[in-house]
Amino acid sequence: MESLLIVVLAKSYKPGGRCIAGRRVTYKTATDVEVGEWIRPVANDNTGKGALTEGMYTYDDGSLVRVLDIVKIPVISSYPIYGQPENYVIDENKKWEKIGSLNASSIPPLSENVASIWNDPQAPSNKVTPDYDKQGLITQSLYLIKPNDLLITLSNEYIDFKGSYKKKIAASFKYLGVEYANIPVTCPSTKRVLTNQYPAEGQASVTIPLRKGDNYVLCISLSPRFGGDDHHYKLVATVFDYDGYLQREYAA
Question: I need a surface site. Which of 79, 87, 153, 207 has the fewest CB within 10 A?
């Protein structure tokens, strides 16, 4: 295997670097592409879930991969892991190549119609148990969805084991009548646009709507098994608004 061509739909924060993901693509023009299955490139660290560091997604001209880029990524092999069947190990000796980019207006039509976002009756709406995974119910770990009643909660809580305050951002929304709550937001653009709206240290959390109502598409991702309970955590990896403002002005 030599390379995969994808449109980048997530470049989210992840411990140790970034989680980049997208969908395989046949590129025609900036408003005309055919998309296929999801792909998540990962570092070649023998775990199948390695975070990507900046040097791995830097183009030859020194610029960095951005959300909506059409990118040719050199890969070694498929490396599915629990809860993330789309993972591919990259060839770290070769540069990624930008082929083009997708217009933000193309995102809403790419949203998927799915029955549920990993609704596990044994877990709260922001998690999935290992048992759910073992039953073969995680056939993909990334979705593009159109939510309703999207709200963002900003907090600035004291973390005992760190001995310091930490700013957190989480989303709640409805999808097909089901309520999802306390979903961590790892989208850099959303974090940057809201950077001055967090409460002061120790103050109560603040819940706000985003300015464009229901005119958003979310890239929802599922983490690998994590923590002492080995649960998978649901994440909002990217927030797209219909006119592309967030990704155009606040991408990082």
Answer: 207
The residue among 2, 6, 5, 3 whose CA lies nearest residue 142 is 6
For residue 45, the 8-state DSSP code is S
Q: Kindly report the number of other CB atoms within 10 A of residue 84's CB atom.
A: 26
> 44 — alpha (psi -120 to 50), left (phi > 0) or beta?
beta
Range of the domain at 63: 3-104
Show the tokens assigned to 191: 């974090």
Terminal-to-terminal C-alpha distance of the chain: 30
Looking at the structure, do residues 56 and 113 belong to the same domain, yes or no?
A: no
Residue where a domain stops, chosen among 104, 123, 156: 104
Which pLDDT tens digit goes with each residue over 146-187?
Answer: 999 999 999 999 888 878 999 999 999 999 999 999 999 999
Same domain, 127 and 76: no
Using CA atoms, how far apart are residues 24 and 184, in angstroms rounded to an integer?
26
* Cα–Cα distance, 12 to 20 (Å, whole number): 7
pTM of this prediction? Answer: 0.95
